[in-house]
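cron nightly-structures :: item 1 of 1
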Amino acid sequence: MVVLNRIYTRTGDGGDTALSDGTRVAKHDPRVEAYGTVDELNATLGLCRLHATGDLEGPLAVIQNDLFDLGADLARPNLATDAQAGHPVLRIIDSQVARLEAEIDAMNADLDPLRSFILPGGSVLSAHLHLARTVARRAERCATDLAVGGDVNGAAIRYLNRLSDWLFVAARVANNGGADDILWVPGSSR
């Protein structure tokens, strides 16, 4: 259980912050950028949930919780020393990725195949889900960039990749099962 008695600590006033293993790094460190972008994604999903009804609200709540797990995962470097931590280290696991895949397949089963790219929009929820999708892609880019220079759990990267797909399909579901999707018309404004 996390207990936050005081919100400000002043420990980051010099431009650095602590990772979950206690290591201090600059606030612009790629690891901080990665988990900070996951936090931004989570906030964006909070906006989505304001407009979600029916079958999307519950899964969005689960995903928001997953994103806290993912942030904790990215905030802890040194995968090789997880066993030496003295406590269970929270990592994204493949079953979380598999759950997203199963949900994508279930949502996509009722959608007509796409014959064009989709412009973000349609319903308010769909527009917010498309925004979340783009933030998920940015979080994935941050995580893959971090993976080049440091250790990143591969399941975390797979989760972000699958989540952006989930958000795309959910945006179509939110657009009246794809009927209200706004299709790209190449060159239409020439």
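cron nightly-structures :: done
The mean pLDDT is 90.
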